[in-house]
Design brief:
The complex is a heterodimer.
Chain A: H1 5-20, H2 23-48, H3 56-74, H4 78-102, H5 109-127, E1 137-138, H6 153-175, H7 178-188, H8 190-195, H9 200-226, E2 228-229, H10 236-249, H11 256-274, H12 281-297, H13 301-322
Chain B: H1 2-32, H2 39-57, H3 61-82, H4 92-114, E1 129-132, E2 135-138, H5 139-161, H6 163-173, H7 175-180, H8 185-207, H9 217-232, H10 237-257, H11 267-278
Antiparallel strand pairs in B: 1-2
The chains are: A mainly alpha, B mainly alpha.
């Protein structure tokens, strides 16, 4: 149980924050947590599984569009509609994984396929009349807990906080479980893992599907929070942001994809608010920070710190043994 | 029929340009094993430099190549020294992250300076038409195509007939053996990287009058270059050029005949995924 304590602390801190913060900060932190949620779900297959995918925004869009369309045309509550989106996203993820594994394509081809898919998705969404074109789909505003609509920003904050913590619990368990080790083994050495009898396609398809389905909930949440979902959410821009936020925290770690976006979103908002007349300065600064961190540490902050800590403790142990 | 021929010329021109962009990407990859996801963004810088030249200095984009290409070459040497040299031995995924970060910085900086507006670059050839019998096509496309073919030939000649080309091939084949033969691997890598950026410095202003210039164009160009690279076969330069032309033709002809025309943008990606399913070794696969 000890390993879940940091998550409980994180959750309690979040609740306390939501009690004292004003609407401005709540809005910033809802977005920061939304990014954190997307990064954590991306990290399941992108970090632990080493499947460098750009398709996460497409899954987000599938989730948002499916639940919104079901709500508008059939009156299905987004609380139920989100599961339809999750299933669709998982199916697409399995299909993409299958294309990749069918021919054992070289490294990074998967990244290119998924990047191509984001460009296709945005074109399809923009030119489809049924999906609302470039305007997207607008949801009627309201305050109705049964259909996932609230006027109070605190509620949205609690929902995304709880979702992030639940996924973190899953990732914490998973990162120390047998299946988790199998997945990282696949990432580090495909051939050796295959020799141990690990079924590549099954592993990658399963965890791609889980990652995609969880990402789709992020889309439903986005649509319900802003009362609109439009094609930009499927774009490669969001994919790059997810990857870079995760990279600066540390890929394949539990806390890297949480801390990276939380720190960076706040920094970007601060810089953009402070220097209003130089719009976009926040993005430039944060991009430079990421490059410097990656080039100097050769790793994300959390994974680098973890390695240093392990190094120090092993040194101490050696010294104790000698004495 | 006339529109078809025009689409054909346009597709050939854009395809030749795609081939050239990819050759620069491949050259860097073959001597450094770095997959540069900021490749397209670096080219967009050159396009904006051409735009700046036209808007504020009144220099024609074709003339500004004389300044932009050396500028990009120098920028390439600095960039190699500051960033790329430090990640040469790092994991491939780290390189992707770093170059994505670089692309992100370039894109954000361009947004900051030039705003997100779509811009067009005027040259003295804009609007001029060339008439060959019954076929009419735009001069800008013809110039782009001719230059890309000449550049590609120059590239082959340099690689196969000059001492520097031999050094480049040696480094691409086996860096350790090359350095044992007294070749400065670092120097070759730096010059090839800077040369690739110099090429983008020529291509950027060349296509600026043809393309619509906007800050987020970069990642699309990078992806197209990678698609052409994979379709053409990674080390096959002729295949690269053929694949570039295929993608260019698909885009141009798709724009003419598909309904709605926006769907033409999907074609290159569709062809890419189809090829991966049917023929993963590329167009001219072994």
């Amino acid at each position: 149980m000890k390993k879940y304590i940091p998550i409980m602390v994180f959750f309690v801190c979040g609740i306390i924050f939501s009690m004292v913060a004003d609407n401005y900060w709540l809005d910033i932190m809802v977005f920061a947590l939304w990014y954190a949620y997307l990064c954590v779900t991306w990290n399941i297959i992108g970090g632990f599984g080493g499947q460098f995918t750009f398709a996460h925004p497409v899954f987000v869009a599938i989730g948002g569009y499916t639940s919104s369309l079901l709500f508008i045309h059939l009156g299905v509550s987004p609380w139920l509609g989100m599961f339809a989106g999750m299933v669709l996203a998982a199916l697409l993820a399995i299909l993409l994984g299958w294309i990749n594994y069918r021919r054992r394509l070289p490294h990074l081809t998967y990244a290119l396929i998924t990047l191509a898919i984001t460009f296709v998705a945005i074109i399809v969404l923009r030119s489809s009349h049924f999906l609302g074109g470039s305007e997207g789909i607008f949801l009627p505003r309201g305050n109705d807990p049964l259909t996932f609509r609230f006027f109070n920003k605190q509620v949205y904050f609690w929902i995304i906080l709880a979702a992030t913590c639940l996924v973190l619990v899953f990732v914490t368990w998973f990162s120390r479980s047998m299946t988790g080790f199998k997945l990282t083994a696949l990432r580090d050495n495909e051939d050796a893992a295959a020799m141990l009898g690990i079924d590549q396609l099954k592993m990658v398809a399963t965890y791609s599907a889980i990652s995609a389905a969880l990402g789709a909930f992020g889309g439903t949440f986005y649509a319900q929070y802003l009362f609109v979902i439009d094609p930009t959410v499927a774009g490669s821009h969001l994919a790059v942001e997810i990857i870079l936020f995760t990279a600066i925290g540390g890929m394949g770690t539990v806390w890297g994809p949480v801390l990276g976006p939380l720190a960076m979103v706040v920094l970007i908002r601060y810089l953009n608010a402070e220097f209003v007349n130089i719009s976009g300065l926040g993005q430039v600064v944060y991009g430079v920070i990421i490059i410097v961190v990656l080039v100097v540490l050769k790793d994300g902050v959390v994974s680098w710190g973890g390695k240093r800590l392990a190094h120090q403790t092993s040194k101490l142990k050696m010294r104790e043994k000698r004495q | 029929m006339d529109t078809f021929i025009q689409g054909l010329v346009q597709g050939l021109a854009i395809g030749g340009i795609y081939g050239l962009i990819t050759m620069a990407l491949t050259a860097v990859y073959s001597v450094t094993r770095l997959l540069n996801f900021a490749h397209g963004d670096l080219m967009v810088i050159a396009m904006y430099l051409a735009l700046t030249g036209v808007r504020w200095l009144g220099v024609d984009p074709y003339l500004s190549i004389l300044v932009i290409a050396p500028l990009m070459f120098g920028f390439g040497m600095v960039l190699f020294h500051l960033i790329f040299e430090r990640v040469l031995r790092a994991h491939v995924l780290l390189v992707v992250q770093v170059t994505l970060g670089l692309g992100f910085v370039i894109q954000s900086a361009l947004l900051m300076i030039f705003s997100a507006n779509y811009q067009t670059v005027q040259s003295f050839l804009t609007g001029k038409k060339i008439v060959l019998g019954q076929i009419v096509f735009q001069a800008t496309f013809l110039v782009a195509f001719v230059v890309s073919v000449v550049m590609a030939l120059l590239f082959f000649w340099m690689l196969n007939r000059t001492t520097f080309g031999r050094k480049v091939r040696a480094v691409a084949e086996d860096p350790t053996a090359a350095s044992l033969c007294g070749i400065s691997v670092r120097w070759v890598q730096m010059i090839v990287f800077a040369g690739a950026l110099g090429t983008l410095g020529i291509v950027g202003p060349l296509v600026a009058p043809v393309f619509i210039v906007e800050p987020t164009l970069g990642l699309h160009l990078t992806l197209v270059a990678f698609i052409v690279l994979i379709l053409g076969g990674v080390t096959n330069f002729i295949g690269t050029f053929v694949a570039g032309v295929i993608i260019g033709l698909a885009e141009a002809l798709g724009g003419l005949y598909m309904n709605p025309p926006e769907f033409a943008g999907i074609l290159p990606y569709g062809i890419f995924i189809l090829f991966l399913l049917v023929r993963p070794s590329g167009v001219l696969g072994r």
